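Project standup — Tuesday

K.O.: blocked on the structure for the chain from last sprint. Re-posting the sequence here as requested.
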Amino acid sequence: MTRFRSLIKYAIVFITAVIISLTLWNFNLYLLFRNTSYSEDYDYIIYVENGFVKVKNGASGQIDFSGKNFSQILKYLFSFHAGVNEGLKIFIRRAYYNVSCDILLENCKYVKMVSDGAKLNLNGHTLTIKGESWENSNHNNIEGFTIIGGRLIIENSFMTTIKDCIFIDTNETITLLNSNGWTECTTIEHCYFINPKLGITFKTPMNNGTRSYANTEIKQCYFELRREGAVGIYVEPRADFNEGLIQNVRFWMGAMAEFNQTGILVKGSMLNTLMQNVVFESFAKNPEGIYGIILGENCDPPILGHGVVFCGNLTGSISNRYGKWLYWGKWIL
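H.V.: unblocked you, prediction finished:
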């Protein structure tokens, strides 16, 4: 009887310990993910505590490593998982992070970098998603960041998604580049570009790159052009942004600089790319060289669908000095 009572006591102590451990674990997860709507599991959670950047293992709950240099920590994570990056998921808690060097996500598949509003000051550096070819870099996702003063490059990659991001004070903001093969089916969605020199650029291909950036979709994005010479979307010569979509996008121009600003500059091809519900709005009092769209000499224009609006005080809605045929709804102009 005494032995039976002892077993009961041990069982009660064990069950109590399990309940306390589970409660503490769930509370720890709550502290990590409060103020976020993300419910999935992450391989790593990065956050700032007492001046140190800490990396918590999402499976064990242990701090794998910590340090002062956010860039080196991120580079270490990707180098540590080199060759097995498929499906890697990283959550970066809301805080201010200084980036001190270029960061490369090379030959990654199904990688997710998600945040609830972390501010990454790139300090002129680049964050690059790159594959040897599109077969080596696909289905990667960056979501929920504020990126300051740097560039995001998508190179030789397939089905990359950039979502819910804010870009501030950048020269080249998002660059799509082909150096070997193509970069297609990119989605840039619900992003806000504040004071870019160039917002989204489809680069002239280099090395063994093709011209194709086909099926790229730019949706629910907003471009606030403040400086002289700013361009929202730039399709460079020999770059093909074909069979794509620009939908529910707005360009604000002329408020802080009244010279040489362009919503969309087309020097390459936008053949069969559809524009829907796109607004070009100028606040300039005396605009000089402020256009919604400029069509270059060797370009293929997009299709102007319903809801394409030019409002405010523009130098001209569309600069078409080379007489390109325009498809506007059911009309050919």
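K.O.: great, moving the ticket to review. The two ends are 97 Å apart (CA to CA). The domain at 96-332 is CATH 2.160.20 (Pectate Lyase C-like).
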